[in-house]
């Protein structure tokens, strides 16, 4: 080692490179004993051929070079020329000015680089060729109090999260979370809420259930019964009387439709299921009732009108109407969210049943008594009691809706339906009895009107409960940044929705259709979350993902210029 050092000093004192030594093949090699361990020995001073070295003149442009010449060097003063190419490392390739990056947290020490060549503590560097820029960075003495890069990151405050590019739009600090890291992960079913994605994502259709095959079979069955009913009315009542009865029957049907639409406006039911409910009542329920009545007539014979109206009709008619509501519960269970949905489906089935029954009654009145009897029948059935069948079957639907809210199985829901059916039979028998016994108008105002008023107040109470549930579930998403508190108040109140629609009408192009879509999807999202929390819908997470994307896309379209 001493001999090698002596040879090196003699070489440098002579002003030229030394002859190859036994320790290194390249000419003018450094003493191997002074080198730190390296995968391969350097080929020359600094690891590069001597002809590639830069003359001392360019070193004047680097202020740190004079300090390097004054530092003690174990290899001798001329040895500083062994690493002239490293003077370029403070100016990294592609980064001509390191001072352009002072704003990066955790990297203020990059401008100093206390371990660069020329410093006294740079002795261990000669063997490290590629990573010259950051050999000593992890142990830099001037590291600020902030943890270095790669260390566990400290939790950010809500204010820092709100200013981040990754924060959801309109994010506000939520008291329910200790920190932003406590926010749930994206699209996690059921209880965690996904953080808001970027705006402008395309709207996706809500996934459908696997009951379409059964529904198509039922529609085929309804088509067969419809043909049979058309033949029945044409043969037994005549085409003219049947057409007149059909036109008049549209009046009470429209009245019931309007009221049901008012009830169902908060969270509209799927149009296909609405159509099926009306079709079941108008075709299947009435057709099965006529078939059963024909069978009983053949088996038992003719029965009295009183027994048929007060006993047979309520039991049989409410049985087949209630069956339609129960089938909807089984087929469209993901759309059957609670009591309000049950009332809506029950009223639609009852309205369909009353429509076909009114065609029959109006046609018979026209045939038997002419215009006078037809007028009286129309006033009683279309004006005074258009909601009779709708109200009766709504009790069955209400019971099934309560079962749906309680996450009841199909068997348990059937038990609830039986209880609702008993109530429907009782009201139906009471109604028919008032027309058979005593003064109809007296019993109508003393009994039927109070029942109808009580039914209306019950529906209003159910609507308020549904609005409260909507606000509670949307508040869960607001806590994750999907909605603002103001948007939740707008979506969860009737007055707020009206204000939102008026605001959308003032936007360019009248964006009320977009606002209606936003309200509809947000309300459906609240119901999906309720099903997800109760665990009664295994597909709730898939619906939740699609609806979250749709609400975000609709909101972006509303706010677009």
TrEMBL record:
The chain crosses the membrane at residues 213-234, 240-260, 272-291, 311-331, 343-363, 383-404, 411-431, 443-462. Residues 19-44, 141-150 have a biased composition (Pro residues). It comes from the Bacteria. Keywords: Hydrolase, Membrane, Transmembrane, Transmembrane helix. Residues 48-126 have a biased composition (Low complexity). The keyword RNA-binding does not apply. This is RsiW-degrading membrane proteinase PrsW (M82 family).
